[in-house]
Amino acid sequence: MGTINIIEEIRQEIKRLAENPDNVKDYSSFHKDGKKHIGLASNITRKLYAEKFKQVKHLDKKEIFGLCEKLLECGDGSCLGMAFDWAFRIRKQYTKEDFAIFEKWLDKYVDTWGSCDDFCTHAFGYHLFVFPESIPKIHQWTKSKNKWKRRASAVIFIYPARKNKYLDEVLKIAKSLLFDEEDLVQKAYGWMLKEASNANQKIIFDFVMKYKLSMPRTALRYAIEKMPANLKKQAMIR
Asked: What pTM did the predictor assign?
């Protein structure tokens, strides 16, 4: 089956599934951007992504990335999710050169916090985990005019943080984003710090205490979420 046929088959399947109201959810309240975000329920999409991957898993990385690009071009949220899911499924085949492809996808197709997080906590985050050479480029994202790229600069470190890697870089990213006025960026670096706190509670707590007077309350609350009550209390005293 050709590439065009596979993509069209997927689009028709998504359309068919969406015709059943039980398969659809309104995610608008999670985005709070004034736009409608209607899509297939996550349990439906997870099953669909896995089923459709069976049809393409025999292909090489270049071909699968090509299919991912076609899915991203569709613009549908479920298609974006499938593209990022498939890219993560072939993570053992990544090379450092794939950074350029992933950054292009980030720039061109990511325009919600959901797509940013799906991509950066899995495929792109894994790439960073195995190829730390890209870290200097990611630091540059913190100065981007694109809020999704600034969010990505923190979210991409969540995969490594969960593996207790790159703690120094996590702190540098958090410091660079400290005064960011975008709520979704504040939540992102707070989340990153929270994940890093699992294995490095004292270091993250000390960071929070050092910057708590200037850190936005949103970021601070995220960062200390998993800490004991006594530490939370200290951190929240302004």
From this structure: 0.92
